[in-house]
């Protein structure tokens, strides 16, 4: 079933969904099953699985020179999606990124998903690789998520890259995209970011999942700004509980978001990370309850493999 159909059948009740990361290469699926087994009691209608492109690492050789090697630390997104659908009977939403893919490779990945019966995709650009100062598309690949949305929408119309394919099978992907209540870090301002988001919706994106935020006013203002910009698709809030003191600086550095002053003060007073985790859980519960009362379509939790934290929040919210 499509993510947007889940929203429709929920009939204005707020759903709960989770995002998982593939295990590090060499790890096993059991870590994901362990996380999700503990969360299935909350009946998530869909589970997102992130995609991780290859990174370059530099190994020092005996000569003193450095050897550049490409490695993918977390492969397996498509296989995990198929395994989750099989084990739990939930819908899986693979994240698909532009980075590292030519358009041809993207097409083949989408064909694999279609054959597996996976008809939801979160279409993203991806970030610059470590040691690269800006996002570089693959040769013959997409520069923006908009181009990826166009490609998926084309396949939904039976249009493939090879113009010789006539009457190609129409895929039926439900396309989600990312949204940034505190603005994407490369956008010159929120308005320009919203215009590009609208382009993606006009091209066929059917819902938005937001970057994490810790102050609900960012989400509510964003939803209002989207409406004003002519964006009328469901906007799912993405939530992550704070669990460690060092995240006060690591999260803003990585995700370009701000922490509210009250939360910072509480965390700074905490004696250890166990206390920080408790503060983070309480904060996330309050955020969730307010969002639920406002009638959001779904609360989407970034689990980061931490089942107990996600569970403590979901138990208090559902
Ligand atoms: P885009 O929509 O391409 O936007 C990127 C920037 O370009 C923005 O500043 C935008 O304003 C601007 N822009 C857009 N279109 C145009 C245009 N036509 N011309 C000029 N400027 C334009 N990353 C991963 O690698 N794997 C994941 O699994 C993953 N999951 C994510 C899930 C969520 C919910 C979110 C919020 C992010 C996720 N990301 C993931 C991170 C994401 O890939 C990065 O935030 C990335 O920097 C931007 O992706 P995007 O799809 O928003 O890009």
Describe the structure.
The chain is of the alpha/beta class and 318 residues long. The chain has eleven helices and eleven strands. It has helices at residues 3-9, 30-37, 77-88, 103-115, 145-156, 190-203, 216-228, 247-255, 261-269, 273-293, 307-317; strands at 15-20, 46-49, 55-60, 66-71, 91-97, 120-124, 174-179, 207-210, 235-236, 238-239, 298-302. Flavin-adenine dinucleotide binds next to strand 5, helix 5 and helix 6.
Number of domains: 1
C-alpha-based Rg, rounded:
20 Å
Strands in their spatial order, largest beta sheet: 9-8-7-6-5-2-1-11-10
Major sheet description: 9 strands, parallel
Helix content: 40-55%
Indicate the CATH class: Alpha Beta
- Our estimate of the beta-strand percent is 15-25%
* Poorly predicted segments: none
How many helix segments?
11
Q: Roughly what is the average pLDDT, rounded to an integer? A: 96
Structural class: alpha/beta
Distance between the termini: 22 Å
Morphology: globular
Number of strands: 11
């Amino acid at each position: 079933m499509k993510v947007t159909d889940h929203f429709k059948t929920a009939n204005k009740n707020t759903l709960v969904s989770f995002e998982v990361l593939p295990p590090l290469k060499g790890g096993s699926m059991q870590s994901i099953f362990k996380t999700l087994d503990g969360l299935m009691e909350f009946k998530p209608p869909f589970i997102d699985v992130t995609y991780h492109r290859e990174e370059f690492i530099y190994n020092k050789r005996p000569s003193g020179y450095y050897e550049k090697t490409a490695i993918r630390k977390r492969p397996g997104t498509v296989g995990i999606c198929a395994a989750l659908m099989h084990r739990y009977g939930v819908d899986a939403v693979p994240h698909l990124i532009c980075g590292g893919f030519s358009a041809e490779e993207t097409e083949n990945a989408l064909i694999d998903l279609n054959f597996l019966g996976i008809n939801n995709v979160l279409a993203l650009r991806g970030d610059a690789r470590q040691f690269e100062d800006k996002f570089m598309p693959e040769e013959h690949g997409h520069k923006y998520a908009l181009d990826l949305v166009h490609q998926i929408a084309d396949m939904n119309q039976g249009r493939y890259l090879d113009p010789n394919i006539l009457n190609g099978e129409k895929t039926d992907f439900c396309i989600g995209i990312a949204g940034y209540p505190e603005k994407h870090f490369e956008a010159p301002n929120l308005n320009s970011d919203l215009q590009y988001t609208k382009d993606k919706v006009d091209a066929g994106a059917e819902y938005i999942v937001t970057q994490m935020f810790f102050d609900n006013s960012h989400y509510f203002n964003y939803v209002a700004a989207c409406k004003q910009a002519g964006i009328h698709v469901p906007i799912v809030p993405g939530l992550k509980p704070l669990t460690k003191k060092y995240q006060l600086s690591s999260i803003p550095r990585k995700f370009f978001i701000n922490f509210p002053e009250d939360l910072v003060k509480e965390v700074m007073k905490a004696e250890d990370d166990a206390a920080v985790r408790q503060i983070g859980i309480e904060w996330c519960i309050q955020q969730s309850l307010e969002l639920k009362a406002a009638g959001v379509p779904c609360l989407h939790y970034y689990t980061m493999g931490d089942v107990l934290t996600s569970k403590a929040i979901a138990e208090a919210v559902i």
